[in-house]
Specification:
The complex is a heterodimer.
Chain A lengths: L15 H9 L5 E2 H11 L8 H14 L2 E4 L14 E4 L1 H23 L15
Helix pairs in contact in A: 1-2
Chain B lengths: L2 H9 L5 H22 L3 H29 L1 H26 L4 H21 L4 H22 L1 H23 L6
């Protein structure tokens, strides 16, 4: 099946590692170490992916067509030629958008039930 | 290469070979980057405390996924059955038949066992021939058993037929009229 014919919703919900990787790749091509660093920064160190988890997720995302290897080397001066760079594919971008939309809907549902933090200042968790 | 890197590289053997070929170098590179960033003294211990469980968990998942995708478990199960069957045929041929008729030990025991094991060895290269060898090797002893002891086989078949017929009648018979 062509990429255009694939339904992004078939892959939802995305596993957390894949969602984090897509988010890290949203602003440009990155190699594994850069992805790992960005995920740690985005989550204030809450999520730290080891090499096994990271490359396991990358393998599955390559197989699913969510990402692809990139020949671009965004930073040639500090580039190590052994590094592999990855970028989000067109289908991956659609899946990412669909997943964010799903999560947004979830947050709205939580807000409607007044269990989400913004609607209840001072709320720190379930009783 | 540091000692930690050498150990990590050795531990990559926990992953399936294909995964190692495709991602072994990048994983080692990422581990090296982590060591450069966080390593040294207790930092190295912390890196290992994070990377060790990650390696064990992800290697298990990769192994499991590979096994399920390639049906390795199923193949091994069948291989095991065929090998046990071949061994049983040799034992059957030597102990039961070979005592009185050594020639039959070859026909019923070693011959079919060789067909079974040969079929296993050829299954990757000549699938059709291998399947035929395994089928013939499996059935041969039973055909010869029928030829050697036709009355026994006939008795089993007839007895079985009568028995099942009786059971059938018992199950379907009308109650006796009074």
């Amino acid at each position: 099946m062509t990429e255009a014919g694939r339904d992004p919703h078939d892959l939802l919900p995305l596993p957390p590692a894949q969602l984090h990787i897509l988010l890290a790749l949203a602003d440009g091509d990155k190699h594994g170490y850069a992805v790992m660093n960005e995920v740690e920064q985005m989550t204030d160190g809450e999520v730290s992916m080891g090499p096994g988890t990271l490359y396991g997720a990358i393998k599955r995302m390559l197989n699913a067509g969510l990402i692809e290897e990139s020949d671009n080397r965004p930073d040639p001066e500090i580039d190590d030629e052994r590094r592999r760079y990855y970028r989000t594919s067109g289908f991956g971008a659609r899946v990412f958008t669909a997943e964010l939309s799903r999560l947004d809907q979830l947050i709205r549902a939580a807000q409607a039930k007044q269990v989400a933090a913004p609607l209840r200042p001072g709320w720190e968790g379930a009783p | 290469m540091t000692r930690s890197e050498r150990v990590y590289r050795a531990m990559l053997l926990a992953y399936p070979a294909e995964h190692r070929r495709n991602y072994g170098d990048p994983m080692l590179g990422l581990f090296r980057d982590r060591l450069r960033r966080d390593g040294g003294g207790l930092g190295t211990v912390r890196v290992w405390a994070s990377v060790g469980p990650d390696l064990v968990g992800s290697a298990f998942i990769e192994r499991l996924e590979t096994a399920m995708n390639t049906q390795t478990w199923t193949n091994r199960w069948w291989e095991g059955v065929v090998v046990i069957y071949a061994i049983a045929q040799v034992v059957f041929g030597v102990v039961i038949v070979g005592n009185s008729h050594p020639g039959w030990a070859i026909v019923i025991g070693f011959g079919p066992a060789a067909l079974l094991l040969g079929g296993l060895a050829l299954r990757e290269r000549q699938r059709g021939l291998a399947t035929l060898m395994i089928i013939v090797g499996s059935l041969l002893p039973w055909i010869f058993f029928w030829m050697m002891y036709p009355f026994v086989v006939a008795a089993i078949v007839i007895g079985g037929g009568l028995g099942s017929g009786k059971i059938g009648r018992l199950g379907t018979s009308e109650p006796a009229s009074v």
